Amino acid sequence: MAPLPPEAVCVIRGNMTEVHCLLFHIISNNEILYAGTENGMVYVWNLKVHNYNFFYYIDVACLSLHLFDDYLITQDKSCLLKVWKNTNNDFNCMYTKEFNNVSFCKIDSFKTDIIYLVIPQSESLVTVCHFEFFSINIKESIKHPDKNLKLGEVMHLKIFRSNIKLCVAVVYENGMLIIWDLLEISIIYSDKMTIDTPMAFDFDPVNFQGICGSNEKNIVIFKLDENFNLIKRKIIEITNAGTSVLRIRPDRKIVVAGCWDGHLRIFSWKTCKLLAVLNCHRASILDVRFSESTIKKWDSKHLLAAGGSDNRISFWRIYE
């Protein structure tokens, strides 16, 4: 008999609407989860005592959250960015930057000696910004030099470091993946991952392995060599169509697929074998996150949080 799948260690709801984005903030004795929702509220959950406060963002869905020291950056679906100063869990908006692009593509960020932000724009454009002194300054624009190439809208962004290069993987509506050198603004890799519109994506820069899901049943896994040449591609078929989010755990042992049927599908990142199907949510999963440090309350090194269209957040200890 196959082993039973793990059960959620906790499920929370509060009075939230659809949960679009999650962000762990674990520092000292504070174990916090931020949750951005459909009606523009950002909830600040104290995981130790299971209570929350919230602040009003704007009357549109909050799509992504990025935290740098005491500054929280929020993004709504019209690509309005706001910078909030956190003073003892009292959030004050310090700065607003408008990019005028209605999209469900989430911005990405990366911190070196400079904090980089990559922003999706219309007409296949990506804007590169620096975040400094709670302001957002535009530095570069990334667009394919072939004006006749119909890439469609930007669907996913992922910044990562490879050797000495700082790179950004950009996934486009037509199924194309282009990896750019972020400093030289040059193309390192370009290939079509899927014939379907890519709805979910993640990339592992240590193993040079990526994963992409769509509105169909197929999940595509591909592997590159150190020179960004494609060396292997594999297709996994799931039971029900539609993958909305993919997330590789920080230790690169498992990857989770949040699906339209409300299930969380757990795969081995090494073998791509399906390990478990977690059934807790009643509607589509919209975001999943792993903590990058231990959550003492549940003694979990990489606690998994999942939020979705059923207004719930579930927490899981998975194969630790």
SSE pattern, N- to C-terminal: EEEEEEEEEEEEEEEEEEEEEEEEEEEE
Helix vs. strand class: mainly beta
- Major β-sheet strand ordering: 1-28-27-26
Q: And the CATH topology of the largest domain?
A: Methylamine Dehydrogenase, Chain H
In percent, how much strand structure appears in the residues? over 45%
Shape verdict: globular
Text of the CATH class of the largest domain: Mainly Beta
State the share of residues found in helices, binned by percent. under 10%
State the fourth-level CATH superfamily of the largest domain: YVTN repeat-like/Quinoprotein amine dehydrogenase
- What is the oligomeric state here? single chain
**Gyration radius, in Å:** 19 Å
Give a written overview of the molecule:
The chain is an all-beta fold and 320 residues long. The protein has no helices and 28 strands. A four-stranded antiparallel β-sheet has the order 1-28-27-26, with no helix packed on it. It has a four-stranded antiparallel β-sheet with strand order 2-3-4-5, with no helix packed on it. A hairpin with a 4-residue loop joins strand 27 and strand 28. The mean pLDDT is 92.
